[in-house]
Amino acid sequence: MCGIIGITTGSGPEAGDQSVLDVLVEGLARLEYRGYDSAGLAMVGPLAADGMWRVRAANGTRSLDDLIKGTKDAPGHPSAGIGHTRWATHGRPNEGNAHPHADCTGNLALVHNGIIENHLELSDRLIDDGHHFESETDTEVLAHLVESHLAARPDDRLAGAVRLALGEVRGAFSIAVVHASDPDVIVAARRVSPLIMGVSDGAAFLASDIPAILGLTHDFFILDDDQVAELRPGSISVTTLDGDPVEPDPLHVEWDLDAARKDGFDDFMAKEMHEQPKAVADTLLDRLLPDGTLVLDEVHLTNEEFRSITKVFVVACGSSYHAGLMAKYAIEHWARLPVEIDIASEFRYRNPVVDGNTLVIGVSQSGETVDTSQAVREAKALGAKVLVISNVVDSSMARDADAVLYTRAGPEIGVAATKTHLAQIIALEILALYLAQVRETLSPAEARGLLDAMGALPDKVAEAMERGDAVHAVAERYRTSPSFLFLGRHVGYPVALEGALKLKEISYLRAEGFPAGELKHGPIALVEPGTVVVGVATRTPVWEKMIANIAEVKSRGASVVLVANDGDVETARHADDVLWVPATEHLFAPVIDVVPLQMFAHSMARLHGLDVDRPRNLAKTVTVE
Ligand code: F6R
User: Quick one: pLDDT band at residue 15, thresholds 50, 70, 90?
Assistant: First the structure.
């Protein structure tokens, strides 16, 4: 949610090789998935007019294009710059509210990701002191607060003023600040919202996320909560808010920039769906031994600790929550442990009953979603063992947890989760089987059969992906339908929820997911001739009941699209259209059954002429509560 970037190269004869403007613009393009309500940048240096040059644009998904047009008069050799791509929270998505924000003098510019909770209280005080505010944002207060501290104690320089300012602030932030009077320096800081930094070729840079600056280095430093960094050309120094020096944690990343390119696909979502078989295979890799056992060496919880668990909680949001729901069926069935699953933003504030024998599993692709990261922190504070499933190595949540199980899907840029969702289901199923292994709740023969079935999943996902044209043809038939009901039972229920979420978030069509058995308790009132019902009707122990529920909507005039196993003519008889998928062991079925629903949503969005990678009002990583 909001992306920030910054680079300093200096302007002297040893200035780094990087062009400040190019790095900012390329980085913003790679950060756009974090928000695209507006984009802006500010540069400082001897050649910038008055030492500061700032440009901002707010034109929805075209903001970055407009910003680039606006940079044609940019000064040739700035020494440092900061940039921002916005997902609006406080203040409308217009140019005046776009970052960077300036102080009263116009010498200071600041970008921010997060929310300043006490901004009204602080701005009232600053306005009384004579500061003039120009925007409706919570962020602008930071620019004036730093300005006031800098004016009071100029000898402390920019970093000192930022430290004092942040000491007064409540909320979440990652920020980057430049000042015309010190044009080689960028000061950065964070609390909760992510920030990584790097150094190369006489430059130093920072960003909200790795892909933004992956072209510059593979070695990063992670800024921790309440740390302040001073970036100078070729060096970074970090202190606490009290000014005590600290060594930032290093992070080496193997991904290359290709992973953040479209590779000939029309959009990232298409590319990332295409990568799903590999995401599943890579997530299984080295964890499934040929002798039929599972190893989770990287999960630093002992088997004794796993055996002491009496209850499991899964906390997550959105698609990650749906992956968690699927895991509930697997963990309860195989490991015989009670599982509660909670929307992360609800968990934290409802005084959950957890203790030292509770395993809380936080599921998050980004590892930065603030609702989930706060839920995980709450669980830890309550004494639970915390395991995080994350796709981003060393993400905030991974660092907070007692144990981490990484999905290995590679970077996901499309706003709608696809390959990471499949990888999450696989990671959770691995964990479920591992719990069963240490608790000895499955016989070796049963476990062996399941692990064999698991090993076959990448090929089956690939087979499901090959049906794209057929799925597109079905989407074409329902192109003008305004609303869709998605139904499923048992593990088909979370698949239905995910199918509905994918459709609504990228095609803006009304789509609701329900447990099929619940329909008759109210939602069936929505069904009328022409209503489109999409049912997950692959073979599970409740298949007959699912088919009975489908008959109920069909008899009321619904058009029925069913996800069915290849060759299952009996299921096809109940459908107007069928989305065919290969069969598997029923608790693994979500990994395959969700694939045609992703493709259906993608086709529908394309048929409606929508930008699937940049759906309205959304951002990839949600770092505000
Ligand atoms: C939907 C989607 C979101 C995310 C949710 C959690 O396609 O991507 O619903 O699943 O915002 O994000 P993470 O997994 O990063 O915590």
Answer: low
**How remote is the CA of residue 417 from the centroid of ligand 1, in Å?**
6
- 620 belongs to the catalytic site: yes
65 and 174 assigned to the same domain: yes
The pLDDT of residue 33 = 79
**Res. 258: pLDDT tops 80:** no
Q: Give the integer Cα–Cα distance in Å for 130 and 601.
A: 52
Indicate which residue of 2, 385, 460, 504 is catalytic: 2
- As a whole number of angstroms, the distance between CA 607 and CA 590 comes to 26
* pLDDT at residue 350 tops 90: no
Asked about 2 being catalytic, the answer comes back as: yes
Same domain for 379 and 448?
yes
Which pLDDT value is given to residue 615? Answer: 86
Tell whether 34 and 65 lie within a shared domain: yes
Note the pLDDT of residue 399: 86
Ligand 1 contact via 369 beta carbon (within 6 Å): yes
Total domains, the chain: 3
CATH number for 512: 3.40.50.10490
Q: Which domain holds residue 229?
A: 3-249
For residue 16, report the distance from its CA to the centre of ligand 1, in Å: 37
Evaluate: CB of 364 within 6 angstroms of ligand 1: yes
Measured in residues, the chain has a length of: 625
Q: How far apart are alpha carbons 486 and 535 in whole angstroms?
A: 6
Q: Is 319 in the pocket of ligand 1 (CB under 6 A)?
A: yes
Shared domain for 273 and 236, answered yes or no, is no
Cβ neighbours for 306, distance < 8 A, ≥ 6 positions apart: 359, 434, 435, 438, 439
One domain for residues 347 and 489: no
Catalytic residue, chosen from 271, 419, 460, 620, is 620
- Rounded to the nearest angstrom, the distance between the alpha carbon of 59 and the centre of ligand 1 is 24
Cα 107 to Cα 104: distance, rounded to the nearest angstrom: 8
- Is 550 within a domain? yes
> Is residue 427 located within the same domain as residue 539?
no
pLDDT at res. 351: 87
Kind and range of the H or E run holding 2: none
The answer to whether 5 and 82 are in contact (CB under 8 A) is yes
Neighbours of 577 (CB within 10 A): 18
> Ligand 1 pocket check: which of 192, 209, 325, 365 to mutate, most ligand atoms within 8 Å of Cβ?
365
Q: Which residue has the tokens 């008959």?
A: 551
Residue 282 CA to residue 302 CA, distance in Å, equals 24
Backbone phi, psi, residue 280, to 5°: -70, -45
pLDDT of the residue at 201: 82
Pocket lining: 598 vs ligand 1, CB cutoff 6 Å = no
- Could you tell me the CATH number of the domain that includes residue 58? 3.60.20.10
- The answer to the question of residue 296 being in a domain is yes
Q: Is 390 in the pocket of ligand 1 (CB under 6 A)?
A: no
Please write the tens of the pLDDT for every residue from 203-255: 999 999 888 888 888 899 999 999 999 999 999 999 999 999 999 989 888 77
